[in-house]
Write a structure and sequence with these properties.
Length: 614
């Protein structure tokens, strides 16, 4: 056995598979290596060898081998070098053959799935793989084809929101989903990526919302049995349930991983729960692979981009995912037919991010302040798969489908050429809509176009950073309603900072005017300062009042914040006026599109007015 100390920060070219630079050593990991036969060479004799097999800059201790290694030389393995790498067997990748059948060598050491086998280049003919490939395998790169892994068993347990945004509503007109049940887009994305780069990892999903809606309860602790890693994701409103899941997991000795919008904005808060081993920030595909590699012992690096841990609590920026490197989503491991009973419309993301800079939006940081599109053929394939599984209405849940107009037109045209009969809901900015793209949407089967208005006041919209002129809003209504196949789904936000009662009432009048149409499905929301956002921190200094710090109500359907400009007669009076006017507006709009619900009573039992938010 050769004992080698591997340092943090070593690179494939500098260190090879297991070598290190003692001068840069920060922390060490002992990597036992079995060396069958080591030949002592001068550096000049191996100058053309792949750098990952040049072991230098270290002085290991050799036990039971024929030669001692010295720091001033580089070494070449005539036969095989084996070292543990948490269950990966890379012979097929590195040598182009299966384990035990490497060409050109008469020595076949005893191998099992706990070793990587590095083949001497002297015995491999036709070597064309890049020299960093083996190192990349150890670090969890996507070069994973042909490997076998001792199964790491991971389970994603879905959270349940205390107050679902859509309650019992299952409305085909708006593509709503009963009790906020949907196909789990985040787990589907992660599972699809893992199936490509770590095919032997077992990934299971527990759909608790579907079970809950059916009147069945899921025993959280029992659902974790037999798994090594427990994962979940959450928004602000269901963060309490996510904490309960992780707490149960830690009691059972599981490794825990969490991601989502709330951990992205409040990673330190989530870490302070004391039950999260890994908190992922932003997009999860790249981070999760490295997290699982580290859990399995494959990747020794202690700091993972976009991930914080108890030992590394300082957040770092995550890497952006190249969407063209991801494969088309696989829904085959999820129960699609059963979902169709509660899911009015599954979600598909054709792009990520938004080029706009609205101050209230939480999407920008989640997607790294970027806008990226997916391969059109992947999107079309997923739409067809969902349709074949029984879904007739599908939502393209992009922040804006028209962020790249040329790409969007190509997407709609391709959908139009192949659409077997599904109908779509899309979202776009009002000022992005044109006669041409509306016509393409209609041809593609679009039935609902959602767009943000937020306020009838230009002044308030400018405060939001919306940069949306009134003519653009009017034009959006006209373009959509001019096509009898389409429904308009405008979004409005009430009680925004800086909004006066005059602005507020003007907004309600405009909503009533535009909403008196059975093809206008208005979405009403209250301004919601989500914890951890720049928007929320700014409101702590504006003199408004946070009605409650109970995060279960932070869904945008509760008046959790009242701006200073509406507090002239005090908090109680302002809240009463907001609630009363909101309920009257809901009753009015329900005459045309019965989709609006009153504020649930439990909200008023949790009032705790404060000038600062949670």
């Amino acid at each position: 056995m050769v004992t080698v100390a591997a340092s943090e920060g070593s690179t494939p070219d500098d260190a090879g598979l297991a070598a290190c630079n003692p001068a840069r050593r920060v922390s060490t990991t002992v990597i036992p290596m079995t060396v069958t036969w080591v030949r002592h060479c001068r550096p000049s004799t191996i100058v053309d060898a792949p750098p990952l097999l040049k072991m230098r800059d270290f002085k290991p201790t050799v036990r039971g081998t024929r030669h001692h290694m010295h720091r001033e030389h580089r070494y070449w393995a005539d036969n095989l070098i084996c070292f543990p790498c948490a269950g990966i067997n890379a012979a097929a990748c590195l040598a182009g053959s299966k384990v035990g059948a490497a060409p050109g060598c008469d020595r076949q050491p005893a191998l099992d799935d706990s070793h990587i086998v590095a083949r001497s280049m002297r015995h491999v003919q036709g070597w064309h793989a890049p020299p960093t490939r083996c190192w990349a395998l150890c670090r969890g790169s996507e070069h994973y084809s042909g490997l076998s892994m001792n199964t790491l068993r991971a389970v994603w347990i879905e959270t349940i929101a205390q107050f679902p945004t859509y309650n019992e509503l299952l409305d085909a007109g708006l593509f709503y989903n009963k009790n906020d049940i949907s196909l789990p887009l985040a787990p589907v994305c992660l599972a699809s990526h893992l199936a490509k780069v770590r095919p032997s990892i077992s990934f299971t999903y527990i759909p608790r919302r579907m079970s809950h809606a059916a009147g069945d309860s899921v025993d959280i602790e029992q659902s974790m049995a037999g798994f090594d890693v427990v994962m979940t994701g959450c928004s602000t409103a269901d963060s309490g349930d996510a904490r309960r899941i992780l707490t149960a997991a830690k009691k059972l000795g599981k490794t825990t991983v969490i991601g989502g919008i709330y951990p992205t904005y409040c990673p330190s808060v989530v870490l302070a729960w004391g039950v999260a081993d890994y908190v992922c920030i932003g997009e999860g595909e790249l981070s999760l692979v490295r997290v699982l590699d580290q859990i399995a012992g494959i990747d020794p690096q202690t700091q993972i981009s976009g991930v914080i841990t108890p030992s590394n609590p300082k957040p770092t920026m995550p890497e952006l995912v190249d969407l063209h490197q991801l494969q088309s989503l696989r829904f085959d491991d999820f129960v699609l037919q059963d979902s169709s009973q509660s899911v009015g419309s599954p979600y598909v993301l054709a792009s990520r991010g938004c080029p706009a800079h609205c101050s209230f939006c939480t999407s920008a940081r989640l997607y790294g302040h970027s806008y990226r599109t997916r391969p059109i053929e992947h999107v079309v394939r997923e739409l067809d798969l969902l349709y074949s599984s029984g879904f007739k209405r599908i939502t393209l849940a992009d922040d804006t489908i028209l962020g790249d107009p040329n790409w969007a037109m190509q997407l709609f045209r391709q959908i139009a050429d192949t659409n077997p009969g599904y109908r779509l809901k899309v979202r776009a900015r009002a000022d992005e809509l044109t006669r041409e793209n509306i016509a393409c949407m209609v041809d593609a089967g679009v039935q609902v176009v959602q767009f943000g208005v937020e306020s009838a006041s230009n002044t308030v919209r400018n405060r939001m950073g919306k940069n949306l002129a009134a003519p653009s809003v009017e034009n959006a209504y006209e373009l959509i309603l001019a096509n009898p196949e389409l429904k308009a789904n405008p979004l409005f936000m009430l009680a925004y900072p800086g909004e006066t009662w005059e602005d507020y009432n003007k907004n309600l009048d405009y909503i009533r005017k535009q909403g008196a149409n059975d093809r206008v499905y208005t979405y009403l929301s209250f301004t919601t300062p989500y914890p951890g956002t720049v928007f929320a921190r700014g409101l702590n200094r504006r003199g408004g009042i946070f009605a409650t710090k109970e995060l279960g109500f932070y869904t945008n359907k509760f008046p959790v914040y009242i701006p200073r400009e509406l507090l002239g007669d005090g908090f109680d009076s302002a809240l009463d006026e907001l609630v009363d006017s909101y309920h009257k507006l809901c009753d009015y709009l329900n005459q045309y599109t019965p989709i609006h619900s009153r504020i649930p009573a439990p909200f008023f039992d949790h009032l705790d007015p404060s000038p600062t938010g949670p």
